[in-house]
Amino acid sequence: DAGVIQSPRHEVTEMGQEVTLRCKPISGHDYLFWYRQTMMRGLELLIYFNNNVPIDDSGMPEDRFSAKMPNASFSTLKIQPSEPRDSAVYFCASRRGQGGTATNEKLFFGSGTQLSVL
Amino acid sequence: GQSLEQPSEVTAVEGAIVQINCTYQTSGFYGLSWYQQHDGGAPTFLSYNALDGLEETGRFSSFLSRSDSYGYLLLQELQMKDSASYFCALSGYSTLTFGKGTMLLVSP
Fold first, then answer.
1. CA distance to partner chain B, nearest, from residue A16 (Å)
2. How far apart are CA A58 and CA B104, in angstroms?
């Protein structure tokens, strides 16, 4: 399996521009998570999906952030308009099952998108 | 809510044993996980404790004590490649809440 695939790997944009981050989860995984990582706040959960349905978006910082999962193999995280404080590494992760047991707890992360908003 | 505390940095020498501690506060959880992240890389799963006690996976072991709200990751026979950040994470209903991470520096 190719693992969780994210694109782009790096994104540099100017304040006010729209940014779209993409993720392809591992085939057969029914849970998809978007995390943001910064030095100050660590790894923060933004939103997660189960069977393509958004379950909890309470971590999305504000209305400028939106996420979709139109099908089981694709998800996007969009920031519009972007601001310098959005600069961070954004990770997508997937898992088969709800977690909580030794057999399905493991979360698989993509390589991340390093976003820089100037 | 949930919160986890880890030391920000730990240093050790090659061949040594190091323990990374994690204390947490939560109203309920399924278990405690550990992830490793090399600089510029993605977090990768190391271990999971659903029950109290020790779980061993090769050179790495993880421990959980629910009564003490405490866990640790034990790394034995340290190698240079073990230099990385290590995160503990609480497993809740479907989600993971991560600590801020501990940077482990292994020197020759």
1. 26
2. 32
